[in-house]
Specification:
Layout: E1 5-6, E2 9-10, E3 17-22, H1 27-38, E4 44-48, H2 58-72, E5 76-80, H3 94-106, E6 112-116, H4 123-132, E7 136-143, H5 150-162, E8 167-172, H6 177-193, E9 199-203, H7 215-218, E10 222-224, H8 238-252
Parallel strand pairs: 3-4, 3-10, 4-5, 5-6, 6-7, 7-8, 8-9
Antiparallel strand pairs: 1-2
């Protein structure tokens, strides 16, 4: 299979891409933040629509798309509605979530849509439909309470992979350093066994910080950094994250 390439960026090889979430509550602030990030060193911008207080106003969402579309250039644009059950800031019915995903797919400026795989009734159908509408899909699962056993984490990744997503993502909360090591080991195993499916993993909180900078070693292709407002515990500041990733990448090129 050909590697996943979006806007001339090959995802899943080399230095991990830096994604910076936008968690502002009003349209003007969302547009201002995306304007800033479009000129930054971020590789990907994530709009966390669950943080947007007008997410029930579809015209307001469309107006944001119209405003930011000319700004994005080569920046990848990820659209995410994180439900409360998965650690997000709002909850909606399944029908409304479908509408929100469709808005993204029809926008013409969204490159990737985050889909909470195990929250969907028919995830395989949903992934297929979104991909046919022209966007790539990140199938995701988040556990803010614990780190499941290695066997369960591997099962979660494999089920999402079998669902046809372009990228699979798993975020977990560690209770001790062994949880972090287990997550890194599962990531490396999955990447080795599924070389055609890019994977994103992270161990959240301060204990899991190493997982956010070691993707080039263990196989995670995207890491999330913060500009002013983090979207999850343990995110490094964007500029510091870039310095750390560049240093690790440079050292890996030394023969």
């Amino acid at each position: 299979m050909k590697p996943l390439e979006i806007k001339h960026r090959v995802i899943g090889r080399g230095e991990p891409l830096i994604c910076v979430p936008v968690v502002e509550q009003d349209a003007q602030s969302v547009i201002r933040e995306i304007t800033y990030l479009s000129q930054s060193t971020a590789d990907m911008i994530e709009w966390r629509v669950d943080a947007f207080r007008d997410f029930t106003d579809y015209n307001s969402i469309r107006s944001v798309f119209e405003a930011v579309a000319p700004l994005l250039g080569e920046k990848l644009f990820l659209y995410t509605f994180r439900t409360a059950h998965q650690g997000g800031m709002a909850q909606v019915k399944a029908e409304q979530l479908d509408d929100l995903h469709d808005l993204a797919a029809e926008s013409g400026c969204v490159d990737l849509v985050d889909l909470e795989f195990f929250e969907e009734d028919r995830p395989l159908h949903k992934i297929k439909r979104l991909r046919e509408m022209g966007v790539s899909v990140i199938a995701s699962h988040h556990d803010f309470e614990q780190t499941p056993s290695p066997e369960v984490m591997k099962m979660l990744l494999e089920k999402m992979c079998a669902g046809g997503a372009d990228i699979v993502k798993l975020a977990v909360m560690p209770q001790n350093y062994k949880d972090v090591l287990n997550l890194l080991d599962v990531t490396a195993q999955f990447r080795e066994e599924n070389p055609d499916t890019p994977v994103i993993t992270m161990s959240m909180g301060s204990l899991g910080g190493i997982s956010r900078i070691s993707g080039e070693t263990f196989g995670s292709c995207v890491t999330f950094g913060a500009h002013e407002k983090p979207s999850a515990p343990g995110q490094f500041a964007m500029k510091e994250l870039r310095q750390m990733l560049d240093t690790i990448h440079a050292s890996s090129q030394i023969q």
